[in-house]
Design brief:
alpha+beta; 5-stranded mixed β-sheet; 4-stranded mixed β-sheet; 15 helices; about 25% helix; globular
Length: about 600
C-alpha cells in the first residue's frame, strides 16, 4: 500500500445499505443455472435503428447497436469494475475489480483489479485504463458519464494493479457504487480525438462477446469469445450462455411480432395487455412450440405517462398541469383499449415500501420536507391521494367540471367552445408519440380535452426524429416511462434535478428545477439508515406527484414474455425480474 493512504480491509462486494447478501466464498448468483451447457444461439428483435457503436457520447446515445452496454441483453462488449446482483436492492460484486476497499464514511474507494482481467486482444486491463476511461468520458462523454469526476478530488494508481478514488464534498454515499458501475475502456485501442465521432468500426472490449457482423441500421451479430477472461469468476457463472447473439431491427412492432411468430426472433417481451390476451392464436403457440410466461418481480410500479414540458410557458402553472391530468379518462381507456388489464398509477414507487401512496408521512419525513410540506396536498401527505375514478363514459361531467375550474383559477376561460387565456388566445399544444400504442392513448386523451375546449394535436414521428427531439427537449408533451428501482439514487438527478434541466441529452423531460426536489435527492443518496432512506424516497415521491409533471397512466405488476421453447431459463426469478443474460439454448448437447 502506498504510504500516506488510509488502510481498509479488501472486500468482495459492497451494498448501498447494510452488507451484501453473498459471502466472500460465494460460487455464483442465486438466480443462474451454474452448470448450464453453453452454445447455440438466440435472436433478439427491437424496433428502431442504429448508426453507432458508442453509447457513451451524445451522438450515439439512443442509436447505438444493442449489446455494447446493455442492461437488458447484458454488457457484451464493455465491462465495469463491479457488477450488480439482480436479487438484492443495490449490491455490487467484483468483476474487473477482484476486491475493493473503502471506509465507513465512504470518503474513498480503491479497486484492486483482477490479475486475470484481459482485453479481447490479450492485453491486461490496467489501472491506466481505468484512469483513462474516466478522463475521456469527462471530456467527450454524455450525461451522466461526463459528470462523474466532478465529485472526485483525486484519482490515482496505487501499486501495480489498484486505482483509488478520493472524493470531495460534492460526493454522496452512492458515489462509490456509481464509480464501480462505470464503463472501463482500453487506452491502447481508442483515439481520444475521434472518440465522439459516429463510427461502426468494431471496437475492442473486455466483455464476453465480439462483433461478428454488422448490417448498418438493420442487424448486429455477436459471437462469444472462447478466451473471455471472466467466464469462471463467481459473478459471471451462468451468464453469457449462447455462442451467438443476433439483434435485428424492425421498423414497427407488428413486423417484429410477425418475425417472432415465424421463429426469426426467439423472445418477445410483451407490454400490451390486449395483445398478450389475443395475439397468440398462431400454430406454434397452439402446439406448445411457443411458451407464454408471466414473471412476478419485486419491483415498484414506476411511472408511465404523458409528460408536460414545463419549459413551455403554457405548462408552467401546476394548476394547468393538474387540470389536464384530471381530464384523462383512465377508466374509459383501460376498458376500451386494454380489456381492463391495468391499474392506474398513483405514485412513482407504488407497490413498495418506498412509495408515498398508501403510506402517511411520519415525523421523520415531515421534518425532512420542512416548509415544502405546506405546498403538498394534505391527501398526498396522508398517503390517501388518488386520481379521480370516472364513470368510464369518456365524458364524466363532474371530473371535466373540476378541470374547467382549475383552468379558470389559472386564468383561462371557455369562449365559443375554446379554452382561451386572458388575451383570447386558444390553449393548444402538441403531443409527440412514437408508435401506434402511444397514438391510441393520445387519441383518447385528445377527445377528452376537446370536451373542455383544449386543442391537442398528435404527431407520430419515426425513431430517429423522436430521439433527436427528446434529446433537445423539442416537444410540448411526450410519452415516457420512468422505471423505479428499490435503490433510487444519483440517476434521479438526471431525471428530475435542477442540474439536468438544460443539459442536452438528460432524462429531465419535464424540465423540472425545484430546490426542494434537489434536497430530497440529496437526502436519499446520503441516507445512512434504511429508515432515513425510505423517508427521503417517500418525500421525494410526494413532491413529484404534487407537482403534476406527468399524467399518470398505468402499470402492471408482472412481466409478460413469450419465447420459443428451445430457449430455456433458470428456475429462480430474482428480485428485479427475469434476466435474459442467464437464459440459454436447450438444443445444446
Amino acid at each position: 500500500m502506498t504510504a500516506g493512504l488510509a488502510q481498509a480491509e479488501p472486500v468482495h462486494g459492497i451494498a448501498m445499505h447494510g452488507e451484501p447478501a453473498l459471502p466472500r466464498d460465494y460460487k455464483h448468483f442465486p438466480y443462474v443455472k451454474p452448470d448450464v451447457k453453453k452454445g447455440g444461439k438466440v435472436s433478439y428483435g427491437v424496433v428502431g435503428t442504429f448508426d453507432a457503436l458508442n453509447s457513451f457520447v451524445l451522438k450515439g446515445m439512443r442509436t447505438t447497436a444493442r449489446g455494447v452496454w446493455d442492461p437488458e441483453y447484458g454488457n457484451l462488449l464493455y465491462e465495469s469494475l463491479m457488477t450488480r446482483s439482480s436479487d438484492e436492492p443495490f449490491s455490487l460484486y467484483g468483476l474487473l475489480a477482484e476486491t475493493v476497499e473503502w471506509d465507513e464514511d465512504r470518503t474513498f474507494i480503491q479497486f484492486n483489479l483482477n490479475p486475470a482481467a484481459r482485453w479481447q486482444d490479450g492485453k491486461p486491463v490496467t489501472p491506466e485504463d481505468v484512469i483513462f476511461s474516466f478522463n475521456l468520458l469527462q471530456e467527450k462523454g454524455r450525461p451522466p458519464y461526463n459528470r462523474r469526476l466532478a465529485v472526485v478530488e483525486k484519482m490515482e494508481k496505487v501499486g501495480d494493479r489498484s486505482v483509488r478514488f478520493t472524493f470531495n464534498d460534492k460526493a454522496n454515499r452512492e458515489t462509490p457504487l456509481i464509480i464501480a458501475m462505470s464503463p472501463i475502456l482500453p487506452q491502447h485501442a481508442i483515439d481520444p480525438a475521434t472518440f465522439d465521432q459516429t463510427s461502426l468500426n468494431p471496437p475492442l472490449g473486455s466483455g464476453p462477446y465480439k462483433i461478428k457482423s454488422i448490417q448498418p441500421g438493420e442487424k448486429i451479430v455477436w459471437e462469444r469469445d472462447p478466451n473471455y477472461w471472466g467466464k469462471d469468476i463467481p459473478s459471471k457463472v451462468g451468464f453469457d450462455n449462447y455462442d451467438e447473439i443476433s439483434v435485428t431491427y424492425f421498423l414497427q412492432d407488428n413486423i417484429l411480432f410477425e418475425a417472432f411468430k415465424k421463429g426469426d426472433v426467439s423472445i418477445y417481451p410483451d407490454g400490451d395487455a390486449g395483445h398478450w390476451a389475443r395475439a397468440y392464436d398462431f400454430p406454434a403457440a397452439a402446439n406448445g412450440d411457443v411458451v407464454k410466461e408471466v414473471f412476478q418481480p419485486g419491483l415498484p410500479s414506476g411511472m408511465l405517462g404523458f409528460v408536460f414540458n414545463t419549459r413551455r410557458p403554457i405548462f408552467a402553472d401546476p394548476r394547468v398541469r393538474e387540470a389536464l391530468t384530471l381530464a384523462f379518462d383512465f377508466e374509459w381507456v383501460n376498458k376500451n383499449l386494454y380489456s381492463g388489464a391495468f391499474k392506474r398509477s398513483q405514485s412513482f414507487w407504488q407497490n413498495s415500501s418506498l412509495g408515498a401512496y398508501g403510506n402517511a408521512a411520519d415525523d421523520r419525513e415531515l421534518n425532512l420536507l420542512g416548509a415544502a410540506r405546506d405546498r403538498i396536498d394534505p391527501a398526498i401527505l396522508a398517503g390517501t391521494y388518488v386520481l379521480p375514478v370516472s364513470d368510464g363514459s369518456g365524458a364524466d361531467r363532474n371530473i371535466l367540471r373540476r378541470t374547467v375550474e382549475l383552468m379558470r383559477a389559472a386564468g383561462y376561460s371557455i369562449s365559443n367552445g375554446k379554452m382561451v387565456d386572458a388575451q383570447g388566445k386558444p390553449f393548444t399544444f402538441e403531443v409527440m408519440t412514437q408508435n401506434e400504442g402511444q397514438e391510441k392513448m393520445a387519441i383518447a386523451y385528445q377527445r377528452a380535452l376537446a370536451l373542455v375546449g383544449v386543442t391537442m394535436t398528435i404527431r407520430t414521428v419515426d425513431d430517429a426524429q423522436y430521439q433527436a427531439r427528446s434529446n433537445s427537449f423539442d416537444y410540448d408533451m411526450i410519452v415516457k416511462a420512468y422505471t423505479s428501482s428499490l435503490s433510487p439514487g444519483a440517476e434521479q438527478i438526471n431525471r428530475w434535478g435542477s442540474a439536468s434541466r438544460d443539459a442536452q441529452g438528460s432524462f429531465n423531460y419535464a424540465g423540472v428545477a425545484d430546490p426542494d426536489i434537489d434536497r430530497m435527492i440529496d437526502a436519499l443518496v446520503n441516507a445512512r439508515s434504511l429508515e432515513d432512506f425510505r423517508a427521503a424516497v417517500r418525500a421525494y415521491d410526494r413532491l413529484l406527484v404534487s407537482g403534476h409533471y406527468v399524467v399518470p397512466l398505468y402499470h402492471v405488476g408482472e412481466q409478460w414474455v413469450a419465447r420459443w421453447k428451445h430457449i430455456g431459463r433458470p428456475d429462480t426469478t430474482p428480485l428485479y425480474g427475469y434476466q435474459l443474460p442467464t437464459w440459454y439454448d436447450t438444443r445444446v448437447q
